[in-house]
């Protein structure tokens, strides 16, 4: 047995509004039509009465003079008004009449015609105080009826127009604000409950959406509960597998491309130190080179250890020596690019729990980035102050007037978290960043 088809929300709302609007407009329209009809009928009778009075005055002298020709002309002149159907005059025992023929011409008549549907009025023709004749004037209401019929048709057309506009507006508003979102959710729920990828589809034409949506979402929730339990069981294994696969490819490439040149750089520094001696003019450069080589070695170690659980050697200490060391390391590059390094820090900063070596690398990366993208003669400002909302937090700001940041392209084999936004998007710097900020979670 097929389930009964439910009515559409649009159809219910539109039908209710149309019915209510039609009843209200129809009631007002009918009242207006009846009032207009009564007024026009009253006006027509008044016009007939006035014309009878005018005709009685106009016929007084011709009837007194028994001027039949003049009487006929006066009567014929009444035919100029389309609503006048007939005029009958009795005087001196003679009847003169004009009436409409089949072609609506005002022609002489014998005074015999149906008066059932006509509006009639009669007057005595008086000259002085003596009655010298009588007249009857008959008007047809056909023109009034035609006018009332046109008014009624116009009223019906207006009501129908309002109904059509109301239906269109209701359909449009309901579709845009209610039904289309509901249909989209229903399609999505049905697709998920069937195990398929949700696809955009057209909406239903009935208000069975609500009941169908309820059943679909209920089915989807049950399916998601089952899949979620299954997902929890495999989540750790899948995360570890993807992570180790990406890091393995990254570490293999870095080890091949960086390690051998790093050993060569270290050997070259040793050879340069032997050849150049211990002069004070090269001592700073040699220290900077050895420090950089040492940090690169630690970076390689960090990359190799990235896939394993790590623990930061965090100790509560002042951040000022860490920043000072990063500024010292970046000093040669700043002088080379003619960029001034300005440090503004309060000596009353609270201690913070950090891994000093890793934080030095973080500050060095950011400051070098600011130096590289600052114009010559400009300055990179490094400021540290206590957070206003937390007494145990230190806020560090590194400001420059470079071109700003843009999203760096993601490396295909590296984890997404290993590629922060950078203006120069250096893969080496990007890959070295995450371990210094926070340790990767263990399995």
Keywords:
Beta-Lactamase; alpha+beta; disordered C terminus; about 450 residues
Q: Which series of helices and strands comes N to C?
A: HHEEEEEHHHEHEEHEEH
CATH H level, superfamily name of the domain at 9-156? PAS domain
**Percent strand:** 5-15%
Spatial gap, N to C terminus: 55 Å
Tell me how many strands there are.
Answer: 10
Q: Class by helix and strand content?
A: alpha+beta
Report the radius of gyration as a whole number of Å. Answer: 52 Å
Helical segment tally? 8
What is the CATH topology of the domain at 9-156?
A: Beta-Lactamase
- Quaternary state reads single chain
The CATH class of the domain at 9-156, by name, is: Alpha Beta
- Overall geometry comes to rod-shaped
Biggest sheet descriptor:
5 strands, antiparallel
The CATH architecture classification of the domain at 9-156 is 2-Layer Sandwich
Overall pLDDT metric: 77
* Contiguous uncertain segments of 5+ residues: 199-207, 410-443
Sheet with most strands: strand arrangement: 3-2-1-5-4
Q: Which range best describes the helical content: under 10%, 10-25%, 25-40%, 40-55%, 55-70% or over 70%?
A: 55-70%
Describe this structure in words.
With 443 residues, the protein is α+β, with helices and mostly antiparallel strands. The chain has a domain at 9-156: Beta-Lactamase. Helices cover 58% and strands 14% of the residues. The protein has eight helices and ten strands. It has helices spanning 9-64, 68-77, 142-193, 209-276, 280-305, 320-336, 356-372, 427-437; strands spanning 84-91, 94-100, 106-109, 119-127, 130-139, 315-317, 340-345, 352-354, 379-386, 394-399. A five-stranded antiparallel sheet has the order 3-2-1-5-4, covered by helices on one side. The chain has a three-stranded mixed sheet with strand order 7-9-10, covered by helices on one side. Strands 6-8 form a two-stranded antiparallel ribbon. Helix 3 (142-193) crosses helix 4 (209-276). The radius of gyration is 52 Å and the shape is rod-shaped. Mean pLDDT is 77; it is low at 199-207 and 410-443.
